[in-house]
Amino acid sequence: MEEDGLSLLDVWDLIMKKKIVASVAFGITMILCFVLLVFGYNSMKTTYEATFHYQWFGIEENRYANGTVYNYYDIISLKNIETVKNSNPAYSDINVNSVAESISIEALKEKNTYRIVAAGSLFKDAGIAKAFLEDLIYLPYNTALNLEFDFNASLTGYNRSKKITTKLTYLNRQLDLIVEGYQGMISYFGDIQIGDTFLSNHLNQAQVFVSNDDLDNYEYLAYQNSYLTKEEYQTILVDRSSLLTEQEILRERKAILLDSLSNIYSNSNGNTYMDTSIANYLNSLHTIDSRLITIGEDLRLIERVTLGNYDEEKSEAFIKELNTYKTKVENLTEIYTEDVKNVLKENTILNLQPIRVKGKMNIVIAAGISLLFGIVVGLLTAFVWSYVAQFKKKQFVEE
After folding, report:
1. How many Å apart are CA 261 and CA 280, to the nearest integer?
2. In sequence order, which residues have a C-beta less than 8 Å from that of residue 181 and are 6 or more positions away?
3. Residue 265 — φ and ψ, nearest 5°?
4. Exposed, middle or buried: residue 263 (CB in 10 Å: 0-12, 13-18, 19+)?
5. How many other C-beta atoms lie within 10 A of the C-beta of residue 101?
6. Dist CA 346 CA 356 (whole Å)
7. How far apart are CA 370 and CA 39, in angstroms?
8. Which one-letter DSSP state was computed for residue 36?
9. Can you tell me the distance from the alpha carbon of 397 to that of 336, in angstroms, rounded to the nearest whole number?
10. Torsion angle defined by CA atoms of residues 227, 228, 230 and 234, in that order, rounded to the nearest 10 degrees
11. Which of 206, 254, 324, 363 has the largest count of CB atoms under 10 Å?
C-alpha cells in the first residue's frame, strides 16, 4: 500500500520541500483573491440606496411655491446628473450617461418620500458615491429653498399706464395682493416670527398704510380736478367723437336686444332652451351697460376738460404725489417679498436618511476567504511542484 500511494506524512514532506513555492503561491493567490473580491465582486454586486423626504409649499400639487412644475423623476435626469458632476472636480471620473442609464428612483408609500438606487460600479469608491447621491438629492431642495418671486406686476402696470385712473387701479391691486397675501400666509403657516417681528405686525403695517392713505381720496381728487397725464389729455381731445359714435351704436344694440328679449320671454312658457337664450341676452345687455357706463364717465371727463378744468401744472404735481405714494407701496412690496421667501424657507424641509450600502462583502470576510483560498492554493502548488519534481527524478534514475 505504501509503495503504491502516499501517506499524509509523505504529502506533508513533499510540501515542506517546496516551502518557498508554497509561500509565494499563498501570497500571490491571497492578494489576487482579495483584490478580486474587494474591487471586482464588490463593484458588480454593491448598490447604494438613498431614502429621503421633501416638504415644501406646493409639493402636493407637484409644484414649487412659485408655480414651477416639480417632477420627482427629474431628480435623476441626465441634466441634473451632469449638473452635479460639473459641480465638483471629485466627480470628474463619473460617466454621466452610465449613471443616467443605471440609476433608478421610486416613490414610497409615505407622501413625497423617495428612494434612489445606484450601482456601485458607477463610482470609484463609497465616499464619492454617497457624496454624489446627496448632491443629486439636494438639487430640488435647493431649488425650493432659493425661489425668486416677482410681485411687481401691478407696479409695472402702473409705470406703463397712460391714465391716472388706471394707475390708481394698479395701486389698489398691489395693496390687495399684499394684504391678502399676509392673511393667506398667517392662515396657512401661522403667525411666524420674521427676525424681531411677526407676520401679523407686517400685516397691520400694510393695513394701517391703506387706511391712512386711502386711494379713494386720490380717485376723488383726480376726478374732481380733472387731473390727467399729458398723454391722457392729448388722447382725450380726439376721443370724444369716437366715444359718441360708440355710445350711439351701443344704445341702438341695447334697444334691439331688449325687444328680442321681450319677445323671447313672452313665448318661453318655461322652456329650458328659452331660459338659456334669455340668459345669453342678459349677459350681452350687462356687457353693453358696463361699456356705456365707462363711455359716460369718459365723456363727462372730456366735458370737464374741454370746459377748461384741466391744469397741466397741477396735474403734474398730483402725479408726482402719486408717484411718491407708489414708492411707499414698492417698499411694502419689498418687505412682503422677503417675508414670503423667509416663510417658505422655514417650511422647506429635506429629511435624508443615511445612505445604505447593500451587497458589499465585508473586508474581514474577504480577507478570511482570501486567506483560506491562499493556503489551499499554496499547499496544493507546493505539493504538485514537489511531486512532479520527484516523479521526473525517479524516471531519470530508472533510465
Report:
1. 10
2. 151, 336, 340
3. -65, -40
4. exposed
5. 11
6. 28
7. 13
8. I
9. 105
10. -120
11. 206
Q: Which residues contact 265 (CB under 8 A, 6 or more apart)?
A: 274, 278
Please write the tens of the pLDDT for every residue from 57-106.
999 999 999 999 999 999 999 999 999 999 999 999 999 999 999 899 99
- Cα-to-chain-centroid distance, residue 217: 43
What is the C-alpha separation between 38 and 369, in angstroms, rounded? 11
- Residue length, the chain? 399
Structural contact between residues 343 and 251, judged by C-beta atoms closer than 8 angstroms: no
Query: Is residue 351 within 8 Å of residue 53, measured between CB atoms?
Result: yes
Q: What angle do CA 315, 321, 322 make, to 5 degrees?
A: 85
The b-or-e profile of 370-383 (16+ CB within 10 A means b, else e) is beebbeebbbebbb
What's the grid cell of residue 80? 441634473
Predicted pLDDT at 122: 86
Q: Let me know: does 14 contact 387? Beta carbons within 8 Å.
A: yes
CB atoms within 10 A of CB 136: 23
Cα–Cα dist 108/52, whole Å: 10
Q: Specify the pLDDT at position 82.
A: 95
Beta strands 47-55; 349-352: pairing state: antiparallel
Cα–Cα distance for residue pair 161/156, rounded to 1 Å: 9
C-alpha cell at 182: 399676509
Residue in the structure block whose three cell numbers are 369716437? 242
Residue 47, classed as helix, strand or coil, is strand
Could you tell me the end-to-end alpha-carbon distance of the chain, in angstroms, rounded to an integer?
25
Parts of the chain with a pLDDT under 50: 1-2
Distance CA(71)–CA(110), nearest Å, equals 16
Question: What CA dihedral angle connects 26, 29, 30 and 34, to 10 degrees?
Answer: 180
> What does DSSP assign to residue 14?
H
- Cβ–Cβ contacts within 10 Å for residue 132, how many? 24
Tens of pLDDT, residue by residue over 124-147, are 888 999 999 999 999 999 999 999
The structure's pTM equals: 0.68
User: Which helix (H) or strand (E) is 154 found in, with range?
Assistant: helix 153-160
